[in-house]
Write a structure and sequence with these properties.
5-stranded antiparallel β-sheet; rod-shaped; Immunoglobulin-like; alpha+beta
Length: 197
């Protein structure tokens, strides 16, 4: 009988140890599952942040790379035309001249204040203009490439014509790229050769 009691006690100890082992195994598996879910959430969030940062960077690069730099705007003829010298920002893609649009927002005088005239650099539209041409070469430029300087002559009409002590705004957009804003400030007189930008 003594032997049987010892065997029963040993079996009970073994049963208790087995139950503790199974409980520990369940807790361990639960911890692994929780860690896996947490890791998946962290990885997914990091990936989404990386994608957002990349798309924002690409958009910013497109906006800056597709931008026009105005070198100068000078009055020509009898002070009624604008001779605009410009170039594309470094790193830009070649653009069609017709994809570069401009808008002249005019101060003007009288009741027709705040008019604007617009067009693009590849056709004669809106403002009476010549199409863009590369500086130092003859003829119109169908494509505007980075690293080269181009010119275009604009002749605003009506309230947008250059006037003494007038301030107008020239806005240029290159394709889907960024906008360039330049304020054109005319002096007390509007003579040929006056620099307004």
């Amino acid at each position: 009988m003594v032997k049987n009691m010892k065997n029963e006690k040993t079996n009970e100890n073994r049963d208790e140890l087995a139950a503790i082992g199974i409980g520990a195994m369940i807790v361990f598996i639960a911890l692994i599952l929780v860690a896996a879910v947490a890791a998946a959430v962290i990885i997914q969030t990091a990936e989404k942040l990386q994608q957002n940062a990349q798309s924002t960077g690409e958009d910013t690069t497109d906006m800056m790379a597709g931008k026009i730099f105005l070198n100068s705007v000078v009055l020509t003829n009898t002070g009624n035309s604008l001779y605009v010298t410009f170039e594309l920002a470094p790193g830009s893609d070649t653009l069609l001249a017709t994809a570069i649009e401009y808008n002249l927002i005019c101060e003007g005088t009288g009741a027709a204040n705040g008019l604007s005239q617009f067009g693009n650099l590849g056709t004669v539209a809106g403002i009476t203009s010549t199409v863009a041409s590369q500086l130092g070469t003859a003829g119109a430029a169908a494509n505007i490439a980075p690293g080269a300087t181009y010119t275009v002559s604009l002749t605003p009409t009506g309230n947008c014509a250059p006037g003494a002590l007038q301030t107008d705004t020239l806005v240029i957009q290159a394709g889907a790229g960024g906008f360039t804003y330049e304020v054109l400030k005319y002096g007390a007189t509007t003579n040929a050769g006056d620099v307004v930008v």
